[in-house]
Design goal:
Radius of gyration of chain A: 17 Å
Order of helices and strands of chain B: HHHHHHHHHHHHHHH
Distance between the termini of chain A: 50 Å
Number of helices of chain B: 15
Number of helices of chain A: 4
Structural class of chain B: mainly alpha
Largest sheet of chain B: none
Distance between the termini of chain B: 5 Å
Chains: A alpha/beta (about 180), B mainly alpha (about 375), C alpha+beta (about 400)
Oligomer: heterotrimer
Shape of chain B: globular
Largest sheet of chain A: 5 strands, mixed
Number of strands of chain B: 0
Largest interface: A-C, 32 and 36 residues
Strand order of the largest sheet of chain A: 1-2-5-4-3
Chain lengths: ~180, ~375, ~400
């Protein structure tokens, strides 16, 4: 199924949740509202015409420019973007779901943004979401066991954020 | 020999002196066999794996590798973990080694060449060799480590699995000979290789392989090396051991390999009787002259040691070929397969010896009572 | 409450066994690196396994945000260090996807040759270490002996044995030296009979079958649900291989090659090679099948290398040079998964138009393959843990990145 058809298939039940799409991009993508993720994903997995049975990867991209001069020139407002790469081994088609999040919940620095977890749809999301939480600082609501996965459990901060500062010291070890 | 000495010195001194000499000889054999087998294992495993093995220490073939290893290990720090039960932890390796060493006392190297000619020799070997596992259990338990504890518990589970079929296997040659005396069992297999108990009848042939399975388990060698399974339990009961204590455990293992191979050789492979009765063909029997008898025994000892070493090589070959069984599979193998097979073979041998008391394969072979009389003679003039 | 009455039977037979928590790793012989598993055991029975990872975390993604794609390339070698070239290929193709770059025929065939060689090397390590996990030492030495020869080939090719960085963005670092292809063919000729030795030592060994058959059975649905890929997925009978089913930029590489995906959806493997028979006690999706798929893929990769050598010799022109070190990247995003030996290795790149990517994503196949262990290891024996972990063929360098 071509991306256009996948989009049209989603359009009927989820029209208000679909925000943007680009089928001419290198990897065609559909942007959805974060709160609709689990339902959309469930349909993507269960609909026999879509049958996205494999979640390849969950990624987050931090759109934030620490340098103020460059930030002024940037064409986007600071935000986080979640990306879900999906594959169907049945129909051999792919699609990318994107979802925008605020960098901080309610614009309060330190308050991690929230997104619903899709680990109930694909179990592999469990570890991917833990990784995104660990490295990007996104709270996945409904996740069974949201702990850090790559960094130590008492690590401070989320290293892949563009404004992340490496701690000066960690348990007596000089870090920078 | 003790009786001979007692004519000249007080009898307590004579017995003590003879005992000490024999014990020292056995200790030398035990240590030498351990050293040789460690070298052999390194060489054989290397060849199996397309390597060279030791080539430098002591010439081209690395003869001096075991002493070099020993010196290195002696220089290592002797660690006793804080959580360990120190006295038990220290004593455990010696229990293992002493048990194995004690077996050497009852192991005949040639007709009558045995430190302790026990009437219940087979029973003694079984009982004392079984003690080796106590050192393993104790060491694992006293280490205060979870992995060691696992190793110890596995050793305990394994010992109850293999001891029963092992004993059943040992009963078979005892039944045929009609004696538990190891010298008598060996002597009763005199003659050509066809008179070995391995070829006595089909049942003994099968029993031998059950015996091989069980003793491999009893020495904790692959595929039954569960107590120290390094890919699962780090090193099992040996996890916390280092330096000298580790060496002692190691020597106990290798000496035990020699013991069970030698024991098997006596029980099934004719002991010191070669495939051809070379000694009697050459007239090297005590009937002709005491010196000739002594030379014949020397030949017999060479036979015995060759068989025992071949047995050890077989075990080494197994270890470097087979993967490890799981603990439940070990227990299944031993209890569910080996015990019924050994029992059936025992019954089979009973019927066979009842039907063919003189044996069938080799008409020359003596039946049990005749052998007893025959072996009684050299015993009276034995060389102790 | 005192109203609760004690039954005499329960008192008499109340043999209480405590559960024990055991740390398997990060320093353990069979966790293939610095993986730590916390086992909750009741005697020999494992009730729960919790993997803890991150001991080898080197911030590969963050490093990628500070380097140009070609500078980042040597870091990809260190992900799955047993198949560095496959990692190079994944990254190179991802950047080429973003650039819209297409390599020449000659380059394409050369890439197939080295990538399939790295698959053989990786699967050899997997098979050997699996034997080691089950207590069999000799296959380990034998497979490493053969792998050494592949590493020797690499050394002749680019000077490095493990971290080759040979396939680069836009091409390869250098064409093959004189006589290399012949050496490569000689290796394949002498390697062919060794596979039979390995089958005799492991695949058909009764104890090996006992230890692996029916252990860690993973259904198709579970495998897909947990995002398992590569031989782990195909071992469960899913007919899926990115070399055939992947994105065009990757599948084009294999255009013109004749080969079949090694999977047994109905429990039957392709029969164009004299493979040993599947033992009846195995269940599709168990550890034995995962191991077996790898062994079959070794044979298949040898065939692909042979075809590659032939096609490379026929192809006209030169191999491609790599792109300039600080070439500006077009604005956009690209994500590509390739069929690395361990599974589907994904690289992603988000570019803002500068030579340095805005965001680099490394999706590890072993990461997903490991995430299924808590599911597989429920109620197994302690000795089965290495048998399951080993069959997943994990590399911690790739999991922790």
């Amino acid at each position: 199924m071509i991306p256009q058809a996948i989009y049209e298939k989603l359009l009927h039940p989820f029209r208000p949740w679909l925000l943007a799409q680009d089928f001419a991009a290198i990897d065609p993508w559909i942007e959805v509202r974060a709160d609709g993720l689990p339902e959309i994903c469930r349909v993507l997995r269960d609909d026999p015409d879509l049958a996205f049975d494999m979640l390849n990867c969950i990624t987050a991209v931090d759109y934030f420019e620490p340098d103020e001069k460059k930030a002024a020139a940037a064409e986007w407002q600071p935000h986080l973007e979640l990306q879900y790469h999906l594959t169907s081994t049945v129909h051999r088609h792919r699609i990318v779901l994107k979802s925008r999040l605020a960098r901080w919940q309610n614009n309060e620095i330190g308050q991690l943004p929230e997104a619903p977890s899709v680990s109930s749809v694909w179990s592999t999301a469990e570890w991917h979401e833990r990784e995104v939480f660990d490295l990007m600082g996104v709270l996945f609501v409904g996740h069974r066991d949201l702990r850090r996965i790559l960094c130590p459990e008492d690590w401070a901060g989320h290293p892949l954020r563009k404004d992340y500062q490496m701690p000066v010291e960690y348990h007596g070890i000089q870090a920078r | 020999m003790a009786e001979f000495l007692a004519q000249y010195v007080p009898s307590w001194l004579a017995y003590t002196a003879v005992g000490l000499v024999q014990a020292a000889l056995c200790l030398v054999v035990a240590l030498a066999s351990a050293a040789v087998f460690i070298w052999l294992e390194r060489k054989v495993s290397a060849r199996i794996q397309d390597r060279l093995g030791p080539t430098r220490v002591g010439g081209r073939f690395g003869w001096l590798q075991p002493p070099a290893d020993g010196i290195k290990l002696l220089c290592k720090e002797d660690i006793i973990p804080a959580a360990a039960d120190a006295p038990l932890y220290r004593i455990a390796p010696y229990i293992s080694f002493c048990a194995v060493f004690a077996v050497f006392l009852a192991l005949p190297f040639a007709s009558g060449w045995v430190a302790l000619d026990l009437n219940a020799g087979a029973f003694f070997v079984l009982a004392v060799a079984g003690l080796e596992v106590f050192g393993v259990i104790l060491g694992g338990y006293a280490s205060g480590s979870k992995w060691s504890l696992y190793g110890a518990m596995r050793a305990a589970a394994q010992v109850i699995s293999y001891e029963i079929p092992l004993a059943l296997c040992v009963v078979v040659p005892v039944l045929i000979t009609g004696s538990m005396n190891l010298v008598e069992i060996g002597d009763s297999q005199k003659g050509w290789f066809t008179s070995w108990y391995l070829f006595h009848d089909p049942f003994t042939f099968v029993t031998f392989w059950v015996y091989v399975t069980c003793v491999t388990a009893s020495t904790n060698r692959a595929p039954f090396d569960l107590p120290e399974a390094e890919s699962e339990l780090v090193a099992g009961f040996l996890t916390e051991y280092s330096g000298w204590r580790w060496v002692v455990f190691f020597m106990a293992e290798y000496a035990a390999m020699f013991v069970v191979s030698g024991f098997g050789a006596v029980l099934f492979l004719g002991g010191w009787n070669g495939p051809i009765p070379l000694a009697s063909l050459l007239g090297l029997t005590p009937e002709n002259h005491a010196i000739l008898g002594w030379l014949g025994n020397l030949l017999g000892m060479a036979n015995f040691i060759t068989k025992a070493v071949l047995g050890v090589v077989f075990m080494i070959w197994l270890r470097w070929t087979l993967p490890r069984l799981r603990i439940d599979q070990v227990m299944t193998t031993c209890l569910k397969y080996c015990v019924p097979i050994a029992s059936a073979m025992l019954a089979g041998v009973m019927i066979w010896t009842y039907l063919f008391p003189k044996g069938v394969i080799d008409g020359v072979r003596h039946s049990a009572p005749v052998v007893q009389q025959a072996s009684a003679q050299p015993q009276s003039g034995d060389h102790r | 409450m005192s109203t609760e009455r004690m039954q005499p039977e329960t008192v008499e037979f109340d043999v209480r066994t405590d559960e024990m928590l055991i740390n398997m790793g990060p320093q353990h012989p069979s966790t293939h690196g610095v993986l730590r598993l916390v086992l909750r055991t009741d005697g020999e029975v494992v009730n729960e396994v919790t993997p803890h990872i991150g001991y080898l975390h080197r911030c590969a993604e963050k490093i990628g945000e500070n380097l140009t794609p070609r500078q980042f390339l040597p870091y990809t070698d260190r992900l799955d260090y047993l198949a560095g070239i496959s990692m190079n290929l994944g990254w190179a193709l991802t950047v080429e996807k973003l650039l819209g770059h297409k390599v020449s025929e000659k380059t394409r065939h050369l890439r197939v040759i080295v990538a399939e060689l790295s698959r053989i090397a990786s699967h050899l390590v997997a098979a050997g270490c699996y034997g080691l996990d089950l207590g069999s030492f000799t296959p380990f030495m034998w497979t490493f002996r053969e792998r050494e020869k592949i590493l020797d080939l690499y050394e002749d090719l680019c000077g490095a044995r493990l971290t080759c960085s040979y396939i680069t963005v836009g091409g390869v670092t250098a064409d093959v030296p004189d006589g290399w292809l012949k050496k490569c063919e000689e290796f394949l000729t002498q390697f062919e009979p060794v596979i039979d030795d390995l089958h005799a030592l492991l695949t058909n060994n009764a104890i090996f079958i006992q230890r692996t058959a029916g252990i860690g059975v993973m259904s198709k649905a579970t495998a897909l649900d947990y995002g398992c890929t590569g031989p782990v997925l195909r071992g469960s009978g899913v007919d899926w291989d990115l070399r055939r089913d992947g994105e065009p930029i990757y599948t084009e590489m294999y255009d013109g090659y004749t080969w079949r995906v090694i999977a047994a959806p109905e429990g039957k493997y392709p029969d164009d090679h004299p493979y040993p028979p599947v033992p009846p006690e195995t269940i599709l999706g168990d550890s034995w099948h995962r191991y077996f798929v790898r062994m079959l893929e070794v044979v298949q990769s040898m065939d692909l290398v042979r075809q590659g050598i032939e096609k490379y010799s026929m192809a006209a022109g030169d191999v491609d040079e790599p792109i300039p070190l600080k070439k500006k990247l077009p604005k956009g995003e690209a994500y590509l998964e390739t069929e690395a030996p361990k599974g589907q290795m994904g690289f992603g790149i988000v570019s803002d138009g500068s030579p340095v990517p805005w965001r680099v994503r490394v999706k590890s196949s072993s990461f997903c393959n490991l995430s299924v262990t808590p599911e597989l290891c429920q109620g197994v024996l302690v000795a089965d843990i290495p048998a399951i972990i080993g069959s997943l063929d994990l590399v911690l360098g790739e999991i922790d990145r």
